[in-house]
């Protein structure tokens, strides 16, 4: 499936299928609800989870979700 983009700017934003999809411009922001709509159709949530236009879900991927280093 080929993802479409609503970009009218140059250069166009990455598609929702691209690994760098989060670099797309925000077209609607709702910080009070914790989400933003990107011009490639992806919805990103403040916890870094994502909902792609085709319905796929990307689980949150915060750097803080990695195990902490234990210092001896």
From TrEMBL:
<dbReference type="Pfam" id="PF19462">
    <property type="entry name" value="DUF5999"/>
</dbReference>
<feature type="compositionally biased region" description="Low complexity">
    <location>
        <begin position="1"/>
        <end position="10"/>
    </location>
</feature>
<feature type="region of interest" description="Disordered">
    <location>
        <begin position="53"/>
        <end position="72"/>
    </location>
</feature>
<dbReference type="InterPro" id="IPR046041">
    <property type="entry name" value="DUF5999"/>
</dbReference>
<protein>
    <submittedName>
        <fullName>Uncharacterized protein</fullName>
    </submittedName>
</protein>
<feature type="region of interest" description="Disordered">
    <location>
        <begin position="1"/>
        <end position="22"/>
    </location>
</feature>
